[in-house]
Amino acid sequence: MTHREEQPPLPEIESVILECSSIGAARARGAEMWGITADDIEANVIAEDKKLFGILGSNLKVEIRPFAPISYIKSCYFVNEMLDRMDLDLVPELTDDGMINLVGEDVGVVIGRYGETLKALEYLTNLVCHEDMSTRRVRFDCGGYRDRRERALSRLADSVAREAVRKGGPVSLEPMSSWERRIIHVALRDSKDVETRSIGEEPSRRVIVCPRDGATSRPAPQRRRRHSY
Q1: How far apart (Å, rounded) are the C-alpha atoms in residues 189 and 191?
Q2: What is the mean pLDDT of residues 35-39?
Q3: Are 68 and 98 in contact (CB under 8 A)?
Q4: Burial level of 177, CB count in 10 A (0-12/13-18/19+)?
Q5: Residue 31 to residues 28, 63, 67: CA-CA distances in angstroms?
Q6: Spatial contact of 205 and 175, defined as CB atoms under 8 Å apart
Q7: pLDDT for position 2
Q8: Residue 136 and which of 38, 48, 214, 215 are 20 to 30 A apart at CA?
Q9: Sequential DSSP letters for 149-187
Q10: Stronger pLDDT, 128 or 50, i.e. the higher one
């Protein structure tokens, strides 16, 4: 049976209810508590208690929450610092589905040869900012690279499947990220000729494509030569 590597759902976003004199004060306390900036916090007043008919001000009950999972926000901080150190004109933007999209003039530089630089930055960011590497990790995109890479991997999956059937044995692909491996698995999951599995440990984990029983191609019959006597 073809193995699929699904991307887990985004982590739950924590929320806290505070009693403060203002929304700004609530955001400031949240920023200190979570180690992010006040601009990254959403606030909503859920109750208001006025002191002495409002003469002495009021106490607010404010629900605050980060606009995204904290580890993803901190990932953007980390990436921004790394890009500054690399002197690259790029800005990380966090999308709704938990992807960091790098936007700017130096998209070609950060993608690198075969996406190696982008993948290295993604791996390093997850290693530093995500405590549990087995859970959902932040993904990276830059200049539409992921769409192009997905199409290329789908073509590669078909080619490797044919090779596995032709040679009658497993074919190993290069080490890939979990997202890239999933594309291979999904591309071949309905194949009647091959099945896939992942082996190894990160960051050297790779996909193996194996022919199913009875799927080995047979050599074409040779034509009999006519001899003149």
Answers
A1: 6
A2: 95
A3: yes
A4: buried
A5: 5, 13, 12
A6: yes
A7: 40
A8: 38
A9: HHHHHHHHHHHHHHHHHHHTS-EEPPP--HHHHHHHHHH
A10: 128
**Buried/exposed 32-47: b ≥16 CB within 10 Å, e otherwise:** eebebebebbebeeee
* Predicted TM-score (pTM) of this structure: 0.71
Q: Structure tokens of 133?
A: 């590497």
Does the pLDDT value for residue 5 go beyond 50?
Answer: no
- Cβ–Cβ contacts within 10 Å for residue 189, how many? 14
User: Do β-strands 99-104 and 139-142 pair in parallel, antiparallel, or remain unpaired?
Assistant: parallel
Band (pLDDT 50/70/90 cuts) for residue 4 is very low
Contact 84, 106 (CB under 8 A): no
Q: How far apart are CA 24 and CA 101, in angstroms?
A: 29
Token digits of residue 123: 């791996």
**Which residues are registered as beta bridge partners of 211?**
194
Q: Look up tokens 């075969």; give the residue.
A: 114
The CA-based dihedral angle spanning residues 156, 159, 165, 166, taken in that order and rounded to the nearest 10 degrees: -140
